[in-house]
């Protein structure tokens, strides 16, 4: 792997940095858009919903064309769309209606993000490795490091140039997918199993095991993004913490601890039960939402936000690894459908928080408390999977 596919792995890691940029840049601007453009929080919530709704639509459709056009072409197309979308985000709101411009831009880069999500994991899964769950966890940790970079560099940019210059920060982040496109062009792609697609998606949909891991992916995405997408606004409006401090202490801490848990698991994966680790993570996630939403002390509530990041770290890559192991012939179709489930969760989690908060008079604490449902269902699902394994 190091000799032949080392560049491929590195390019895939950078691909998750691209996805981190398209998913986590605009949440840093929620409060600014609310004040400068007069967009209410209920409509800002729709921006998150559209992003992940488009990604899940791409997940659903990609099972039918990724194998036909090839994985490399799909990755290159995804990087182009991500770059165009970020450039449009900094341009269109000043040319047409601001909200419409944001929606169009999100539509473009969400297609790119959805394609990356579908193809990167199976590419890495197909690369030879001694312990694939550890490599998968390491791969997904780069989403976290990308998230940290987005927060820190964007916060520094805003501090130096002012929030009014946010559009130029968007242009800066467009350079990441452009760089990845160039790097990926020279990377070899391993042979990837596609029997799941050749046999038809219907075959997967008839398996109870597939539906179980599909629900796990949905809850993993929801538990992660319910906090990730709202922690910046929660720190600023819910805890009355200044913008820069809130982004660093809230959003950045969340991402750092999420990446740390993934990196940690990649080191100990050979000696640790993945299912047991996911059960423990689910319990920690429930506790973290209780602390963030139920404790009045701002410092303690922020600790809850950080704990949430650590707890959700292995949920997404762990579910992918379990699925690849238990359904080895799933191929492109399975990864696409699991990405669909994850993105449904990524949309449902933040949307639930936003609507519950709005119904309670913009009380984000109540919204975060409602999100406990996702790690709870995830815990029950992992327990059912363990029981199923024992019976087998």
Q: Which CATH top level class fits?
A: Mainly Alpha
Topology pattern, helix = H, strand = E: HHHHHHHHHHHHHHHHHHH
Task: Supply the CATH architecture.
Answer: Up-down Bundle
Number of domains: 1
Strand content: under 5%
Radius of gyration: 20 Å
CATH topology: Growth Hormone, Chain: A
Briefly note the structural class of the backbone: mainly alpha
Distance from N terminus to C terminus (CA atoms, Å) equals 32 Å
Q: Which key phrases capture this entry?
A:
Growth Hormone, Chain: A; mainly alpha; 0% strand; 81% helix; 392 residues; single chain; globular
Task: Describe this entry's structure for a reader.
There is one protein chain. Helices cover 81% and strands 0% of the residues. By secondary structure, the protein is mainly α. The protein has a single domain, classed as MFS general substrate transporter like domains (Growth Hormone, Chain: A). Helix 1 runs parallel beside helix 5. The two termini are 32 Å apart.
Write the layout of secondary structure elements.
Elements: H1 6-24, H2 30-36, H3 41-62, H4 66-69, H5 71-89, H6 98-126, H7 132-161, H8 166-184, H9 195-199, H10 201-205, H11 208-228, H12 231-238, H13 243-268, H14 274-294, H15 298-312, H16 315-326, H17 331-359, H18 364-370, H19 373-391
Helix pairs in contact: 1-5, 1-6, 1-7, 1-8, 3-6, 3-17, 5-6, 5-8, 6-17, 7-13, 7-16, 11-15, 11-16, 11-17, 11-19, 12-13, 13-15, 14-15, 14-18, 14-19, 16-17, 17-18
